[in-house]
Amino acid sequence: MVPVRLRTAWLLLAFLAWGEAGNAAPVTFNTALPVAKGMFVFRELFVVRRARGHQRKAKGWTSVSVLGYGIDPRWAVFAVLPVVGGKSLSFPTSAGRRQRSAAGLGDLLLFGRYTVYQHDLPGQTLRLAPFAGVEFPTGDDHERDAAGRLPPPLQPGSGSWDAVAGVVASWQTLAWEVDAQLGYRLNTEAHDFKAGDRIALDASWQQRLWPRRLTSGLPGFLYGVLEVNGSYQWRNRISGHKDPDSGGWRLFLTPGLQYAARRWVVEGVVQLPVVQDLNGRALKDDWIVRAGFRIAF
Amino acid sequence: MNRSFLCLLVAGFALFAVPGMTAEYLLRVDGLGCPFCAYGIEKRLRTLDGIKDIEFDIAKGEVILTTEKGITLNREQIRAKVKEAGFTLRALSVREDSADGASTP
Q: What's B85's DSSP letter?
């Protein structure tokens, strides 16, 4: 039986893996830019992360698929489905070092976004859009190994119905773009485990690096990207009791690159921890890499 | 014999030549800030009948829309499609081309 402290350490990682997968530019979170009526945007993002602490090591990778659809100029709906390619936790025991791992389908998130404010000018736009959604317990949450059922943080799915809500603002010009998002995630209980709720503030700046000067036509744009991802998570609850080794503050600095053509985008960033003021013995991230592509059709 | 054949050839062209004008519309669109955003405008405009070609000049915020011969569009049609894409039509001007490609202001 994995000690409670070890179990809970993974929760933050599992949560972050899907929670920050964005839908459009920026890379790590949502945007208020329009999805045209009748248009689909598909995004695939590969997330790889490493974490460690107190003689424990954690690693994993997840493929996050996002499909967005424009119902009309203001309404867009999105589906986010992570597939955990593999995540593992190794830790010391009296019998030597052990490792437990899992892979499988994650939980499906559906959310809608509505543009409440739009101001268009030549070559630029300013938008504001709230969003809200529900995460369904579609993921695998009964994975087992030789030692028995894996603890909740190692399971690909949570088994719980959760909700997200927030607001995103975007200001895009031909030379640069700035986005900011404030989001809240409400988690419910499953299998006597409730992950702590989470509030996050993300910001992104994308600067066009090439072409340096726009002439005519529709060239592809190469952007330099710099994002900041801050969050606070409340403590988890196990059988109704607060887990002292969970929750806390995180702040990441996230540089990257993005190339945007007419119908596709390729992008990649690396999240580097700047602040990790976590409670107790929670694992701390070494780094998180996110890379992928988007296509419109 | 050669002159008769030549007359026949000219008559044939006169019979089968298709008269008509293509139209070129110059749209000025506000809110357009990146290439990936332009595709949304193209997708909505292509739902109009008779669209032959769509080109962008993103630096100027311009969309050049060319229709098939005999097809004409009105301002409200175009404005609605730009709005469906999530942008704002600021200005629209029309230029018609003759069948042989010469422009008519």
A: T
Mean pLDDT by 10 residues, chain B (105 residues): 60 45 91 92 96 96 94 93 96 72 40
User: CA-based Rg of chain A, rounded to a whole angstrom?
Assistant: 20
For residue A283, give the nearest of A86, A89, A106 by alpha carbon: A89
Q: What is the DSSP letter of A158?
A: -
Of A209, A224, A211, A210, which is closest to residue A254 (Cα–Cα)?
A224
User: B30 and A125: CB-CB below 8 Å?
Assistant: yes
Size of interface A-B (CB pairs under 8 A): 112
Residue of B nearest to A220 (CA): B35
Closest alpha carbon to A201 in A3, A20, A75: A20
CA distance B80 to chain A (A): 11
Amino acid residing at A244 = P
Q: What is the pTM of this model?
A: 0.85
Spatial distance between the Cα atoms of A50 and A283, rounded to a whole number of angstroms: 10
**CA dist., res. B30 & res. B60, Å (int):** 10
